[in-house]
Amino acid sequence: MTEVSQFDALKLDLYLELKEWKDKFDEMHAELIGDKKKPGIYRGLQAIVNDIEIKTRAYMRKVYREMTPAEKEAFFLREEEVVVTTIDRIEK
Question: What's the pTM?
Fold first, then answer.
């Protein structure tokens, strides 16, 4: 077995803890903002709650079927709205 320093052991513990929190974050993100399958409860909203701001911006983007870049130029399908919602603390 390879020896691991105490400092590296602490980093490994932190790594695993952050990995667990990232999974929890991803679950909460899907619930609040949404994912590709389903919009979340705050998707598309503008709001301020205490020191938390929910803001949304929408823009159009082009959508293509899978093809080469040259084919993309020739076979443009449509523009599609993209909605991006973020939740952040308001800086004081």
Answer: 0.59
